[in-house]
């Protein structure tokens, strides 16, 4: 996954001892307080959506807030 963020103003990355990050779901993008929140652990919301920026940050282990951004799938590495 390629994540390009513009003007990151807040982020949260919790340490992960003993395992590596695996993304099972695509990132969840929300807008609160004029910022884009990119939650890479959005599966905790299920079909629902967070109600505020604080809700995004309180429950996520890997989240960024930025003025803007995009994401795309990377091409497989050539062997």
Quick summary:
With 79 residues, the protein is mainly β. It has one helix at 53-59; strands at 2-13, 28-32, 35-39, 62-72.
- What oligomerization state is this entry in? single chain
Using only C-alpha atoms, the radius of gyration works out to 13 Å
What share of residues is helical?
under 10%
SS-based class: mainly beta
Describe this structure in words.
The chain is mainly beta and 79 residues long. 9% of the residues lie in helices and 42% in strands. It contains one helix and four strands; from the N terminus they run βββαβ. β2 (28-32) and β3 form a beta hairpin. The radius of gyration is 13 Å and the shape is globular. The mean pLDDT is 80.
List keywords for this structure.
9% helix; globular; 42% strand; mainly beta; 79 residues; four-stranded antiparallel beta sheet
């Amino acid at each position: 996954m390629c994540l390009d963020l513009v003007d990151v103003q807040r982020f949260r990355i919790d340490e992960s001892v003993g395992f590596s990050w695996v993304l099972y779901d695509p990132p969840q993008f929300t807008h609160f307080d004029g910022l884009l929140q990119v939650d890479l652990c959005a599966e905790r919301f299920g079909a629902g959506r967070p109600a505020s920026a604080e809700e995004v940050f309180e429950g996520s282990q890997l989240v960024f807030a930025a003025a803007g951004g995009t994401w795309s799938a990377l091409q497989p590495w050539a062997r």
